[in-house]
Amino acid sequence: MKQTSPQSMMQVGRRSAFTVFLFLTFCANTLFAADLYVGTGRVDITPDKICGLAGQWKPRFTKSSLYPLELNITLLESREKDQILDSALIVSMDTACVFAPMFRAMQDTVKKTVPNFDPNKLMVCATHTHSAPYLSVIPAEQIPKGMEIMNGPEYVEFVAKRFETALGQVLKTRQKAQYSYGLGHAVVALNRRAVYADGTAVMYGKTNRPDFRAVEGFEDHDVHSIFFWNMKNEPIAMFVSVACPSQEEEGNKQASSDFWGPVKRDLRQKFGKDIPVVTMCGAAGDMSPHLRYQQQAEYRMDRLRGLNRLEEIARRIVVAVDDTYNVVEKDKQTSPILKHKRIWLDLPERKVTKDEYESCKRQYESLLKSDPANGQIRWNKRIMARYEKLSKNPNPVFRVPVNVLRLGDTAICTNQFELYTDFATQIKAQSPAVETIVVQLTNAVLDPTDHMTGGSYLPSARAAQHGGYGAIVQSNTIGPEGGQILVEETLKTINEFWK
Predict the structure, then answer these.
(1) What per-residue confidence (pLDDT) applies to 31?
(2) Of 203, 205, 285, which Cα lies nearest the Cα of 245?
(3) Strand pairing class (287-288; 235-242)
């Protein structure tokens, strides 16, 4: 009979011990892992009256609608039996920004409708369409005679009521669920800042000029998808994040969710006509869907496909989402880690110089005489007020909320700015999560005295050096220094969730 050597016995012992360790670990995770519960809802928030439209310097008023404006909502809960360990209520809205009055109205609605829900767990994301209602009051002198409109505060109230209906759907549909996630790609966003030989940059500057040298920054083509199923393996909701404002058609007089309209339509044809699609605008302060060069080649391909630009953008996104779904549906999880936290950051304001103050004052006075309806009047007036306050407070700070959510191996982190892509790239590159989604224009400044600061651009250091719209002081509440602090503090919280 063959004898077993002491070395062989030790190897067997090690393997046995390791097997026992894996078994105990599996049992511990199985016994003590929390279940994922998901509730969903969606409502139409297209105004039923004429509205002023956001996103341009002068008022535009709706004549019709192209694609419905929607509010899609998903509630995530981590539960051990009947105990809720953590949660997140994630809302996407087809709107330009989520200014303070809208955000406060939605917070109040949540408090009234969802008992014991922590308002810090609410995340309201704007798709940044420029074809949605203006949320502030349009002065009477800027409204055509005889035209009755739904003004900003009335629209906020209209949305709050529809939101309450969506929350009712969420509570009725809440159920044990499964989740998976994945990364796809589609060319949707292009850097919109052209840099010239003299070191200056212009947003949407011409690229066929002989002194054109480069587009300024990185272009993010990630398409992040998160999918949810019930326990019968039926799709019940999805998140889709693209780093691009929904602004392919932004100067017309139609209420529209822009390219997200055909995206949601086509996804519902594939995954269910009633499925909520939570759409998120990734960090894209320096990007847009507008073609920057080779336009004729792109238009030719559109014609050959029989599509317009909105439909072509939607086709690319839907192909990426569908491809991701087919891969990751094999990797469903019922007990992902769910951790969610809101932090508050005091970011240094971008300081206004004396030269900038005097320039803004000249523009303000000139426009007040020549074009009193121009939105740049208020734009310049805000900068003048900031400069005048520096004598009393030479180092002003601006307080902003940031939400960080861990769902399994994915991280979702938010900010309220039009954040330049350089900052999001830092977060994605340094995050310990397998996949990290940076979402801009989420929640809002809670300062009731100046709602316009809620969605201001936050430029990279190179953009601030090049200047131009989006990177000059009139466009910014926070400068590159504050953006770097935002990156570092966001990463600090993400890292806490992966300890």
Answers:
(1) 40
(2) 285
(3) unpaired
pLDDT 10s digits, 20-70: 444 444 444 444 479 999 999 999 999 999 999 998 888 899 989 999 999
Sheet order of strands, 193-196 included: 201-203, 193-196, 212-215
Name which of 164, 181, 183, 155 is nearest 48 in CA terms.
Answer: 155
pLDDT under 50: residue ranges of the chain: 1-2, 9, 12, 17-32, 448-449, 451
User: Which residue in 55, 65, 167, 63 sits closest to 122, CA to CA?
Assistant: 167
Query: Cα–Cα distance between 203 and 188 in angstroms, integer?
Result: 17
Residue 453 has phi, psi (to 5 degrees) of: -75, -10
The DSSP bridge pattern shows strands 175-185 and 64-65 to be: unpaired
Query: How distant is the alpha carbon of residue 30 from its chain centre?
Result: 34
Closest listed residue to residue 192, CA positions, set 177, 211, 178, 207: 207
Q: Transcribe 334-385 into DSSP letters.
A: SS--EEEEEEEEEEEBPPPPHHHHHHHHHHHHHHHHH-TT-THHHHHHHHHH
Report the DSSP beta bridge partners of residue 288: 190
Which tokens sit at 195? 């840099």
Rounded distance between C-alpha atoms, residue 420 and residue 480, angstroms: 10
Alpha-carbon torsion, ordered 291, 297, 300, 306, to 10 deg: -50
Whole-number mean pLDDT of the chain?
92
Nearest-angstrom CA–CA distance, 163 and 27: 41
Residue 112 C-alpha from the chain's centroid:
25
- pLDDT at position 498, please? 97
Q: Tens digits of per-residue pLDDT, 87-109?
A: 999 999 999 999 888 999 999 99
DSSP string, 73-118: EEEEEEEETTEEEEEEEEEEESSS---HHHHHHHHHHHHHHSTT--
CA dist 280 and 264 (Å) reads 12
Q: For residues 264 and 38, give the distance between their C-alpha atoms in angstroms, rounded to a whole number.
A: 20
d(CA 120, CA 448): 18
Alpha helices in 253-334 (DSSP H): 260-271, 295-305, 309-328
Output the pTM of the full model: 0.91
Angle (CA) 408 412 418, round 5°: 170
- Under DSSP, the state recorded for 193 is E
Q: Are 36 and 77 in contact (CB under 8 A)?
A: yes
Per-residue pLDDT tens digits for 205-246: 999 999 999 999 999 999 999 999 999 999 999 999 999 999
